[in-house]
Design brief:
The protein is mainly α and about 180 residues long. It has 8 helices and no strands.
Length: about 180
């Protein structure tokens, strides 16, 4: 993909992520305007709102998964795990905002949800293994149990002080898995 085409696609995904997280109901024209691209560019990349919604969702999942390695490259394992939980909370709020749009896109593939879960669990496994090796997380900590404990992230109200709630929930979970 050409650099300008990649920039346009990234701008569209960024604008759509913000717009759909704010409201599951937004027009393609509004997203094109927010992204600073023409309607033709938007439709060339994403012919329907459903295609755009699914791309935003997958982009967010990929971003959460990739952030684990990025955080580990720049921080201690313990700090990377804390940062990743914060990133997971932002993903939860975005996904919550996308819920109506995902439902409208008839997105209900159990196989794809399993793939998404495995991406998230894989990222967490990487972080937990590094923290176990660092000696800050108890050996044998199961990433699936940690994700279950973090499920409260999806219960937060995006109109509340969800960032503080996420930090509190993350701190509780981290205390529970410390060595």
């Amino acid at each position: 993909m050409r650099a300008d085409a990649r920039q346009n696609r990234d701008a569209i995904l960024g604008a759509a992520t913000r717009a759909l997280a704010e409201s599951g109901q937004i027009s393609m024209n509004a997203i094109a305007q927010r992204a600073g691209v023409g309607n033709a560019t938007l439709h060339r990349n994403f012919p329907t709102i459903e295609a755009l919604t699914l791309a935003v969702y997958q982009h967010e999942v990929d971003s959460v998964a990739a952030s684990a390695s990025e955080y580990l490259a720049e921080h201690t394992a313990d700090a990377a795990l804390r940062l990743w939980i914060d990133r997971l909370a932002r993903y939860a709020m975005t996904k919550r905002g996308l819920a109506d749009a995902l439902q409208a896109a008839a997105y209900s593939s159990d196989a794809h949800f399993a793939e998404v879960y495995n991406q998230i669990a894989g990222a967490l496994t990487l972080l937990l293994n590094a923290a176990i090796e660092q000696g800050t997380v108890r050996a044998g900590t199961d990433p699936h149990d940690v994700l279950l404990a973090l499920a409260g992230l999806w219960q937060m109200n995006p109109d509340s002080d969800w960032q503080q709630q996420a930090r509190t929930l993350g701190a509780i979970v981290l205390r529970g898995i410390r060595d």
